[in-house]
Amino acid sequence: MKFSLRSGGLAAALVGALALSLAGCGSATTQNQGSVSLQETGSTLLYPLFQIWAPAYTKDHSDIKITPQGTGSGTGIADAVNGTVQIGASDAYMANAQMSADPGMLNIPLAISAQQIMYNIPGLNHQHLHLSGQVLARIYTGKITMWNDAAIKALNPGVALPALRIVPIHRADGSGDTFLFSQYLSFSNPTTWGSASGPQYATSISWPPVPASLSATGNGGMVEALQQNKGGIAYVGISYLSQAVNDGLGYAAIENKAGQFVLPTAQTISTEAQSLVGQTPKDERVSLIYGPAQGAYPIINYEYAIVNAKQSSSTTAKAVRQFLTWALTTGNQPSYLEQVHFLPLPPAIVKLSEAQIAKVQ
Amino acid sequence: MNVTWRRLKDRIMLGLAALMGIIILVPVLGMIWLVVSHALPALSLGLFTQVTVGAGGGLANAIVGTFYVVGLGILIAGPLGIMAGVYVGEVDPGGSFAQVVRFTTDVMAGVPSIVIGYFGYVTLVLGLGWGFSTLAGAIALSLIGIPYVVRSTETALSKVPRGMREASLALGASQSTTIWRVTLREALPGVVTGVLLALSIAIGETAPLLYTAGWSNYMPSLQLTHAPVGYLTYVVWTYINEPFASANALAYAAGLLLLVLIVIVNVVARRLVSRSRLGR
Amino acid sequence: MATPGKVRALDRIMRVATGIVAGGSLVAMAAILVFLLRDSWPSILYNGGHFLTSITWNIGNLYSGAVSRHNGVMAPHGAAYGILPFILGTLLSSLIAVVLAVPLAVGIGLLLVEYLPRRVGDSLSFAVEMLAGIPSVVIGLWGIAVLIPWIGRGLGPWLQAVFGFIPFLRGPIGSGQGLLASGLVLAVMITPIIAATTRDVLRQTPRETKDGALGLGLTRWEMIRAVSLPWSASGIFGAVILGLGRALGETMAVLMVSGSAVNYLPQNIFSPIGTMAATIVSQLDSAMTDPTGMAVHALAEIALVLFVMSIVVNVPARLLLSAAARRGGEAQ
Q: CATH number of the domain at A115-279, out of 3.40.190.10, 1.10.150.130, 3.30.450.40, 3.20.20.140?
């Protein structure tokens, strides 16, 4: 008895000493006196970019620590509002109701991102099917159930569509990607999906019950679900495009407002972004979905940093301002953005964002 | 004939039982193989010395963070659970208060960890203003672990032969001395097994820590509040969905480290139990 | 000097101190219960009984700005909360888990105690205990990588081929994510608890009674059935209740393999489902975007229902167990 007690106690003490010494030496080397710690949480679409930005920024600015987390746009907004983090990342701007509940919040675009519709149809994944907002809405309401449905055939003459059941996949967690996709469906189907009785748009909507449908968590979960489900269709953020294509999944050419079927390329995305610069208000809360321009990709968005204008201290505010300004300038360079397929903000928008950043005190 | 049929049935039952044993080995071995094979790309010495950087790096911050949060949680749960277990098992085992406590402990063991996590988020992180912090995480883990320590302590104490207590009291020892010096000592292996059980559960928890400890890319300082901390289960849960292969490998590496930790805890627990049996 | 007075005082302090700590657990549970009640009260007012019977989970339209009132509580226009699919998903997956885990665990327990020699038994014991400690996220990883493809391509088609006459097994198999996967994952998670307890309890069966039965000419299996199992029944039952409690509240692993279905009921055993605990995790961050807070209150109500379910499972079990213990004591 004593033997086991002693050896057990010795083991515990050794482990404890080891842990403390590791912690101690860690804190000695990485913690400087007076360092500011910034926390970011939110969109899983913006998370990969923040993971590239954070180490690059802290390398040159060792007095600031940045910790990003990928939890979902909903958490990003909520945590920024209640002050748990300094920067909330969201693909969706805050709603009017949320803004009136929390008037001091700023929605600051940092980059331009896009979303593609991906599918897993054996034999057709290397092709870009043509899909329209109407067809997509009918798929997600369960009215179109097979890939060789007449409506899909009509958009894709000459393509040998298989008699494969469609598995609509949507996000389970509160997601900016859901916001973008549902907004696209709302704008392209104003009398059905977008009407007051339809699901409309939000970071989290009530998906119509389709018996074959699945939910997935995070963009990564969407890609995974697609890989496992033949016949699956899902909306995925553009940072995940290369990996998904490498895994053999296909993506669609989506119909824009001008009736063209466009792929998400740097060209088509920036066309859409440019055409909507004029419509962006000072608080930068605007949808970039389904713009009227020719050759524009219809599902793009500003990636927002949700920040409280009132920070806990002026040092924190200064750190936040410095980091966000860096993100808008150095961080917007192709060397960073290209890794995640984002596009830089148009210069006029950069000015608007900088004006908002100045408000952070 | 009857005897042959009965013997046959006996053989069949043995076969079925053996089948069960084989069936349960499939997931265990499958999990180990899956985690090891996918963690290989990330295995290197840097795993233990580097912190998570961007989508890659090492796991030093998560490893130390796990030790930190879990260690603190068990430091809280252990003594408190043992004291409560002593009360329920020794001080007043038949009393109605003890029965209520027993019932409460069983119900607490069944509360989903996400409920505890959310409770911790609203009361500690937001309510007390601690923000994502080690202490909030440790308290959440202790709430989850205490029922197991209480239950194991009570069971271990109940197995101690009555004669020992009576002998001690007859020799003039007080109730305190009897309980803490005699009975508890005798029951110690069972008690420690309970603490180790709580420890292994705490090591593997994810949901409550997501909402109380947050996450940090940096080595933990000794600051208990207002500073988030990293832990291995976060890496498994989040990095597996990243579009970067280095992140996925890191997730599996974290899973492997978790398995190793669990094995160590299990081995220690077994040694204690076997030693106690030999000692008798 | 340990005077009688000092000793008595020390004893009293010790009793009071341990009593306070024991009472602390009551305080903690009361705090959680009060917290859940307070947080879910607006949802209880707004949704009423529909919460338990409706299939639709709708957070409402946050971007339209319109707000509806009911029973004096605000919520975004169109919000309607019903958790029937999650209740069913939780109950069905736990049921499958228990149905599979009990024979598996009892079989393992018997194997370890009655059939296997000590050394081999120890290795199997170790493997089972390891399984008990594996974090649920790792089990979820295995579920996604190994279990789901196996259900989709192997087990599913086989079940339909052999048992296809049962309506609940017919219909599309999908990828394998769904009710069966959740049930299997839960079975894997609760088997170790039941097996370890079964093993411990079986070991305590009085040797004389067992030897007596064998001496009378019973085969090993007949002895088990006549002596060991009845003796251990209440202990095994207690472990099953423990396992059931764990299955009801399990979050992460189920979240990864269940398919997270919303707004429809499972059609067959392969249908994607949602469980109450997994839904809380997956819906929590979108609920936090609701400025009226109703979505979070609805999630708190789910937690409350789960809490109540846990009590409903525990109370009769404890009563049965204490009755059995009393009967067993009298019989001796």
A: 3.40.190.10
C58 and A CB contact within 8 Å: yes
Q: How much is the pLDDT for A27?
A: 39
d(C-alpha A79, C-alpha C288), whole Å: 9
Interface touch C65/A96, C-beta < 8 Å: yes
Q: Is C215 exposed, middle or buried (0-12, 13-18, 19+ CB in 10 A)?
A: exposed
Task: For chain A, positions 52-81, list CB contacts with chain C under 8 A.
Answer: 71-75, 77-79
Residues of chain B with C-beta less than 8 angstroms from the C-beta of C35: 119, 122-123
List all residues 6 or more positions away from A187 whose beta carbon is below 8 Å from its beta carbon: A133, A194, A287, A289, A290
Distance from CA of A91 to the nearest CA of B (A): 17
What gap in Å lies between CA A279 and CA A289, rounded to an integer?
12
C67-70 and A87-90: which strand pairing? Answer: unpaired
A206 touching chain C per CB within 8 A: yes
What average pLDDT does this structure show over A17-41?
A: 54
Chain A residues touching B64 at Cβ < 8 A = 19, 22-23, 26
Predicted confidence at residue A26, as pLDDT, reads: 38
Q: Which residues of C touch B9 (CB under 8 A)?
A: 219, 221
- Domain-by-domain residue ranges, chain A? 10-113+302-357, 115-279
Q: For B46-279, CATH number?
A: 1.10.3720.10
Beta carbons of A261 and A152 less than 8 angstroms apart: no
Question: From CA B249, how far away is CA B215, in angstroms rounded?
Answer: 19
What's the complex ipTM?
A: 0.86
Which of C289, C292, C294 should we substitute to test contact with A (largest number of A Cβ atoms within 10 Å)?
A: C289
Q: What pLDDT, on a 0 to 100 scale, did the predictor assign at position A11?
A: 47
Are the folds of A10-113+302-357 and A115-279 the same? yes
Helices (H), B159-215: 162-170, 175-177, 184-203, 207-212
Q: C13: part of which helix (H) or strand (E)?
A: helix C4-47
- What per-residue confidence (pLDDT) applies to A253? 94
Those chains having 3 or more beta-carbon pairs within 8 angstroms of chain C are: A, B
**What number of other Cβ atoms are within 10 A of residue C221's Cβ?**
21
Determine contact, residues B267/C133, Cβ cutoff 8 Å: no
Q: Which chains touch B (3 or more CB pairs under 8 A)?
A: A, C
- Select the residue of C59, C271, C288 nearest A202 (Cβ to Cβ): C59
As a whole number of angstroms, the distance between CA B27 and CA C140 comes to: 11
**CATH: 3.40.190.10, 3.20.20.450, 3.40.50.2300, 3.40.50.720. Which one for A10-113+302-357?**
3.40.190.10
CA distance C21 to chain B (A): 5
CATH homologous superfamily of domain C86-331? MetI-like (1.10.3720.10)
Which residues in chain C come in under a pLDDT of 50?
329-332
Query: What does the domain layout of chain B look like in residue ranges?
Result: 2-41, 46-279
